Amino acid sequence: MNFKKIMLIALSYVGIIVGAGVASGQDILQYFMSFGNWGMVGVVLLGLLSVIFGGITLYLWLVLSSPRS
């Protein structure tokens, strides 16, 4: 995989996250912290889900863009 393809994937994913309005995390933190300690659990859960869905996105891109035999 060359650098151009890696950057295409990375920037596409960042564009989706930024477009969803979660780039800085400040608004998410303020929202979840209004729920106290359970809010911190929500922040961690949201972070984990972001990593998981990012991995799924990368995996699907790799599978779908691989040459078929």
From the N-terminal CA to the C-terminal CA, the straight-line distance is: 18 Å
Low-confidence stretches: none
Can you count the beta strands? 0
Q: What is the string of SSEs from the N terminus onward?
A: HHH
The biggest beta sheet reads: none
From the spread of the alpha carbons, the general shape counts as elongated
Global structural class:
mainly alpha
Cα-atom radius of gyration: 16 Å
Strand content: under 5%
Secondary structure tally, helices: 3
> Helix proportion of residues, in percent?
over 70%
Descriptive report:
With 69 residues, the protein is mostly helical. It is 78% helix and 0% strand. It is built from 3 helices and no strands. It has helices spanning 3-19, 26-33, 37-65. Helix 2 (26-33) crosses helix 3. The longest helix has 29 residues, at 37-65. It is elongated. The two termini are 18 Å apart.
Quick structural summary:
The chain is mainly α and about 70 residues long. It has three helices and no strands. The radius of gyration is 16 Å and the shape is elongated.
SSE layout:
Layout: H1 3-19, H2 26-33, H3 37-65
Helix pairs in contact: 2-3
Any descriptors?
0% strand, 69 residues, 78% helix, mainly alpha
